[in-house]
Structure formats: C-alpha cells, structure tokens
Design a protein that fits this description.
- This protein folds into two domains: 168 residues, no CATH class; 86 residues, 2-Layer Sandwich (Alpha-Beta Plaits), CATH 3.30.70.
- The chain is 37% helix and 20% strand.
- It is built from ten helices and ten strands.
- Strands 1-9-8-7-10-6-5 form a seven-stranded mixed beta sheet. A three-stranded antiparallel beta sheet has the order 2-4-3.
- Helix 2 packs across helix 10 and helix 9 crosses helix 10.
- The mean pLDDT is 96.
- Pfam families: DUF483.
- InterPro entries: DUF483.
C-alpha cells in the first residue's frame, strides 16, 4: 500500500484557512437528521470539560472568549477547577493545526488555555506548550492520551502530517487496499476521527490505528460519562459515527461523504486525492 510523503505529495506553500461546513445531500435528509446533528455536535466539547471535572483526566484545552469569559470563569471556579491562559488567538471555525496570535483581544478573538483540577497540572501543561519545541508527549500524558498514540502523533506531525487521518487508517490491522491511494477500514467509534472537523467525535486524540486497543479502552470512559451526563446526545453521536462514509483529501480540502450529509473542511495540501472509506463502525 502506498504511504504518503509530504515532501513529494504536498503542494508547497498551500495552507487552506480553517473552515468546516455541513452540507445536506437532500432536503429530506435535513428533515430527518437535522435535530440529530445539532444534538450530537456539541457533546464532545462538553465531554472535554466534564472529563476533568469528574477526575477522568488531568487536563483539557479550553478556549475562553471575551463574549462569555465571566460565565466561563464563574463556572470553572464553582466546579473547583483552575484555568490558565496560554495564547491569545484569532477566532476560527473548524479545524486548525496552529493558532493565529493577536496582541489585543476583541470579539473576534479568544484565549487558548488549559483546564485542570489543580494549579500544578495546569502549570505543567502550560510549560510543555510554551517551550520553543512543544512537548507533545508531555501534553498528551496530561490529556490522558495513550502513550502509543502520542508517539504516533509526534512522529506524523514531524513528518508534516498535521491531519493524519490516512496515516492512522493505514496502520490499522483490518485495512484493505481498494486502489492507488484508496483504502478501506473498519473503525471503532473511539478511534473515529474522520468527522471531527464539525465536532463529531467521542475521544479527543488521534489514534495510532483505527483498532488501537488502548484508545478503545480509554474511549469506554468517555462513552460511559457521556451516557451519564447526556444519554440522548450520546445516542445522536453514535448514530452519526456509525454511518457508512468516505473521507478524501485533495489540495488542502477534506470532503467527508455520508448518505445524509457531506462535510467540507481544510486539511493537508495533497497533490493527488487520497481516500479512506468504511461501511461499518464498531461500538460498545
């Protein structure tokens, strides 16, 4: 099977700005799935916070906007948590592999920071983030990522793959070659990151493979907490993540196609089209 090589397979200098859109494939699909999509797409964001609050992980990342900083800070303090700022950044929608630093805050900016249960963990996270060379493994440990997956991410990031969907799929045991630069896999909802651009994800890390046992084990913690705090939201997310689908990337744009909707987002700047497809998704 063909492996991607950023040096020869990327368009040099192309970096598509952050974007993420859901496009309905027909009006009937929107009528059937609209409420499900709305219910599912905010669950992961809520889980990130609740996993720290419920002592399931040490840290989480959290952006705070000038629009609601007072409410966010009050909630954090009321829950007995701490938050430290790391970077002022321009606001964006969707996926980005970097921040867009700003000096002054306005309504089009926010502050990227770390949420933790104690100041020591928050300071450790911030120190790892502000080094000249970011310590991704140290950050991954504080975020509760499997060691194997943190190592995978660091390696792929250093190779230029800041959105390593294809790389993760290629390392899966059940991967099948369909054609040149086209593979088929069977992910688990805990490792399914192909729709994360618009918020559809259970866990928050890139798995080293789509059948990573450690990711599936950690994912069960996320799953059980989701069932506890928002069972309807979990059912909605599970319906979406178990849809058959197809992820493809070309010229910095990822297109994720399912029967009811298509997702358009920025991604890695490939010269040719690379495809990952799946018919079935395992769950708990």
């Amino acid at each position: 099977m063909i492996k991607m090589d950023a040096k020869k397979d990327f368009v040099v200098g192309l970096d598509v700005p952050p974007t993420a859109e859901i496009i309905w494939n027909d009006p009937d699909a929107e009528e059937e799935w609209g409420s499900i999509v709305e219910r599912a797409k905010t669950l992961h964001y809520r889980l990130e916070y609740e996993m720290v609050k419920h002592k399931k992980r040490k840290c989480a990342t959290l952006h705070i906007s000038p629009r609601n900083y007072d409410k966010d800070i009050e909630r954090i303090l009321s829950d007995g948590l701490v938050w430290l700022p790391i970077q002022r950044t321009k606001s964006y929608t969707g996926f980005s592999h970097k921040h867009f630093p700003v000096d002054e805050l306005d309504m089009n900016s926010n502050v990227y920071g770390v949420l933790a249960r104690n100041l020591e963990d928050a300071e450790d996270f911030r120190a790892h983030s502000m080094q000249k060379k970011v310590n991704h493994k140290g950050i991954g440990k504080l975020l509760g990522f499997p060691k194997c997956c943190s190592g995978f991410f660091v390696e792929e990031w250093s190779n230029g793959f800041y959105d390593p969907v294809y790389q993760s799929a290629l390392k899966s045991k059940n991967v099948k070659e369909i054609g040149e630069r086209h593979i088929k896999i069977r992910p688990h909802i805990a490792t399914h990151q192909m729709m994360r651009y618009v918020g559809f994800r259970l866990t928050s890390h890139f798995p080293c493979s789509l059948d990573c046992k450690d990711s599936i084990e950690i994912g069960k913690v996320w799953y059980d907490l989701a069932k506890k705090i928002d069972p309807q939201g979990l059912r909605a997310l599970e319906r979406i993540l178990t849809l058959p689908g197809r992820w493809e990337v070309l010229h910095g744009v990822a297109v994720v196609v399912t029967e009811p909707f298509t997702i358009i987002a920025n991604s890695i700047p490939t010269k040719e089209k690379w495809v990952v497809e799946w018919d079935e998704v395992d769950t708990y």
